[in-house]
């Protein structure tokens, strides 16, 4: 798992993880590249029916979006970065 906190805020309180667009995700024709690519075990594959799932959202490194590079165009999306940064700042008392 990645860090327990980010900028002094508990990771579980930060809404940052991939959002799967199931209309665009084709599981890379049976070999999901994001599953192989992410070293933090964020993804898993549901068996029946087979589909990608965000199994460990709190393992996603805050503001990382690298997995998008290996997936079908726009199959993975992320929350709005400025909005998440605002949440972090509010939780820190800024």
Provide key terms for this protein.
single chain; 94 residues; alpha+beta; Alpha-Beta Plaits; two-stranded antiparallel sheet; elongated
Count of distinct strands? 6
The averaged pLDDT comes out at: 93
Give the end-to-end Cα distance, rounded to a whole number of Å: 27 Å
Structural category: alpha+beta
The H/E string reads EEEHHEEEH
With strands numbered from the N-terminus, the spatial order across the biggest sheet is 1-2
* Rg over CA atoms: 14 Å
- Poorly predicted regions are none
Domain module count? 1
Describe the structure.
The protein is of the alpha+beta class and 94 residues long. It has a single domain (5-87), classed as Alpha-Beta Plaits (2-Layer Sandwich), CATH 3.30.70. It contains three helices and six strands, in the order E-E-E-H-H-E-E-E-H. It has helices spanning 27-30, 33-37, 81-92; strands at residues 5-6, 9-10, 19-20, 43-46, 51-54, 76-77. The strands form three sheets. Strands 1-2 form a two-stranded antiparallel ribbon. It has a two-stranded antiparallel sheet with strand order 3-6. The longest helix has 12 residues, at 81-92. It is elongated, with a radius of gyration of 14 Å.
């Amino acid at each position: 798992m990645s860090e327990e906190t980010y900028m002094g805020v508990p990771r579980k309180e930060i809404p940052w993880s991939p959002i799967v667009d199931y209309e665009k995700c084709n599981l890379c024709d049976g070999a999901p590249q994001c599953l192989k690519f992410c070293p933090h075990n964020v993804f898993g594959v549901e068996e029946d029916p087979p589909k990608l799932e965000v199994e460990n959202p709190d393992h996603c490194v805050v503001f990382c979006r690298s997995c998008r590079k290996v997936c079908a165009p726009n199959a993975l999306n992320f929350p709005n970065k400025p909005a998440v940064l605002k949440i972090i700042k509010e939780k820190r008392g800024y």
